[in-house]
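Tip: read the tokens left to right.
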């Protein structure tokens, strides 16, 4: 039920769980804690500035957006801004998408229970179709981010996303790449040593859900 994209550290068992834990545990460190703190300060200041210009029309929505903005940066390296909720920060929805990244994760949160319980294809033909579409949009965004980050990590294992240094996704990709590199020619060379894209996405989704 809780592996909508792929096997993850929550659903894996036995040696497979040990493998997932070995890659997903290291990103939770002081570097990520500092990123969480600095991004929380930045987002809170932005929200405070917005409130100083005009009173909040919906306090619950503002706090909800604040939380998701912090998760986007600390979890996935996608820094959001109060004047725009798109990756390009230009106020428009990127080509190939039906909604912005922030709209997608906001809607996924709203429909999280049916997303975890029901097949996406079934949801598309019910009143829950908005949740299904957001779920698919979130996947498209994340796969694009994963692909871009993987290429950068593969080119340089010391790579850091300078806009969000210490985010969980990039850190997880670095650990996975390091595990594969260390296993070359070693005793673990015949065993699985790196995450597939589905496993990266599955664990990233668990980070988001948590």
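Filled-in amino acids:
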């Amino acid at each position: 039920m809780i592996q909508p994209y792929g096997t993850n550290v929550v659903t894996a068992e036995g040696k497979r769980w040990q493998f997932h834990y070995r890659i997903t545990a290291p990103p939770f460190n002081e570097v990520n804690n500092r990123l969480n703190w600095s991004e929380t300060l930045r987002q809170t200041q932005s929200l405070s500035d917005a409130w100083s210009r005009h009173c909040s029309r919906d306090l619950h929505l503002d706090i909800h957006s604040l939380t998701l903005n912090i998760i986007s940066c600390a979890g996935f390296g996608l820094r959001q801004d109060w004047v725009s909720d798109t990756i390009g920060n230009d106020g428009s929805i990127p080509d190939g998408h039906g909604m912005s990244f922030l709209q997608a994760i906001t809607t996924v949160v709203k429909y999280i229970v049916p997303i975890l319980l029901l097949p996406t294809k079934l949801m598309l033909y019910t009143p829950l179709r908005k949740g299904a579409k957001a779920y698919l949009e979130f996947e498209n965004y994340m796969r694009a981010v994963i692909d871009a980050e993987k290429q950068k990590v593969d080119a340089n294992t010391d790579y850091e996303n300078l806009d969000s240094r210490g985010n969980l996704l990039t850190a997880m990709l670095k650990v996975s790449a390091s595990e594969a590199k260390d296993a070359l020619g070693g005793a673990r060379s015949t065993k699985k040593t790196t995450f597939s894209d589905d496993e990266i996405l599955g664990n990233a989704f668990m980070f988001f859900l948590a």
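Residues 123 and 129 are 5 Å apart (CA to CA). The radius of gyration is 18 Å.
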